[in-house]
Amino acid sequence: MRTIRSLDVEDARILIAGAREKAEEIGVPMCIAITDEAGNLLAFERMTGGKVTSITIAIDKSYTASGAKKATHEYGAASQPGAPAYGIASAIGGRLMVVGGGLPVMDGGDVVGGIGVSSGTPAQDMEVAQAGIDRLMSRA
Amino acid sequence: MRTIRSLDVEDARILIAGAREKAEEIGVPMCIAITDEAGNLLAFERMTGGKVTSITIAIDKSYTASGAKKATHEYGAASQPGAPAYGIASAIGGRLMVVGGGLPVMDGGDVVGGIGVSSGTPAQDMEVAQAGIDRLMSRA
Amino acid sequence: MRTIRSLDVEDARILIAGAREKAEEIGVPMCIAITDEAGNLLAFERMTGGKVTSITIAIDKSYTASGAKKATHEYGAASQPGAPAYGIASAIGGRLMVVGGGLPVMDGGDVVGGIGVSSGTPAQDMEVAQAGIDRLMSRA
Amino acid sequence: MRTIRSLDVEDARILIAGAREKAEEIGVPMCIAITDEAGNLLAFERMTGGKVTSITIAIDKSYTASGAKKATHEYGAASQPGAPAYGIASAIGGRLMVVGGGLPVMDGGDVVGGIGVSSGTPAQDMEVAQAGIDRLMSRA
């Protein structure tokens, strides 16, 4: 038997609030998804103007970040042509996201969940995801 | 050209808050999903204790209710063996939900979105979904 | 943040060993799957003679039992024509199993995972799954 | 009519044991999957700390190696931009894995199954998969 620490829905709301505020600040409406330690969806919001195609992308970025315990943009670098993880982007029916915007949420050295953001550029998505984590960390 | 009226994310939060309060009142933690007029996910929350299997079920109940402009339990009656819609339950890769807990959200005679609830009995899911709608209507 | 207790791979091996021994005793080679608290696969074995079609069925029975915190045969009763959960069998792309052979694994009142068995009759599958749980409980 | 030689579940356990020991030695907890000659899952284990996203990836690496009778990293080379198999990575709904960590298991010149490993770097996954094969060969 093992004991696992994971985000709950209260944490998820704080993550979304922090991300949303940054998205408003930079003027890019986003889809924002939060998954628990196991990669299962905890909470989601699509801001007015967030893209329909970004619903699944945000959820899958968050799934990838929490399930693989790695930021999605790290996979982006590792999966370039010629790099060792080339081709990983289509794994798990395409759920394995290698585009920036998915970040693991850490607590005391453990991955406890993930946040996935989509609708802007990958750099904007990453900035907004990080703002969600910063908000949660400031509350901890 | 046409103009479409639809729920937005602010409405979605009110729907979720009303549903969550009822779920807490009856002591059944739920997955709660809100979709817009087009059936696309607007917002989602899984309360602590909400079932992992209910994530997709709640989203698909809401998708069915807004997309088909019909409560999912109405499909339940219409899809019994021998009834005209028998077999519809497995349509759209299984996304067409015929179990109670998905309700269309109406505004002035138009369907403007849906709410889907899952983790309890179908009767509990329907009660919690209705509480979400009641909350939104009381704000209108 | 929340703390979750879950089966680990050592527990999974004990569950499989207990189930396999019962399957050998009744002379029905089985597919046996173990999932963690979140419904994710921990371990799997297909005995010689276990059915190819039962691979996914065993995994999905275990997923359903741990994710929905309910034995799959309970869904079987609740999803008969005319019953409240009629139609649930095709949910989650057909992963929601309502055929007997999936059991939640409990520990101190909490669901900590699931076991799913397939290749025999539902009654045989249930008996073999229960034998896995009995083995784990006798070690606790 | 033809006769097929294939791994059985006893072989699968030896393959997993050899792989697991190497994974422990290098300190990288892994998902380890074994498929038979036909590409169907025989056995699977997720070590504590093995990634959730790697469940499907390990199974699909093994499926690819036994089904295509080729190591997955060979596809990695052949599917680079400009190479003949470019684009194959998304085939079969993304199940065709081109990332290292899937190896065919040979016996007397025939492919009799596959092993797929995931959670580390592709080089680590390959090393662990090879250790499983080495263990089986040493028993033959």
From TrEMBL, chains A, B, C, D:
<keyword id="KW-0808">Transferase</keyword>
<dbReference type="GO" id="GO:0016740">
    <property type="term" value="F:transferase activity"/>
</dbReference>
<dbReference type="InterPro" id="IPR038084">
    <property type="entry name" value="PduO/GlcC-like_sf"/>
</dbReference>
<dbReference type="Pfam" id="PF03928">
    <property type="entry name" value="HbpS-like"/>
</dbReference>
<dbReference type="InterPro" id="IPR052517">
    <property type="entry name" value="GlcG_carb_metab_protein"/>
</dbReference>
<dbReference type="InterPro" id="IPR005624">
    <property type="entry name" value="PduO/GlcC-like"/>
</dbReference>
<protein>
    <submittedName>
        <fullName>ATP:cob(I)alamin adenosyltransferase</fullName>
    </submittedName>
</protein>
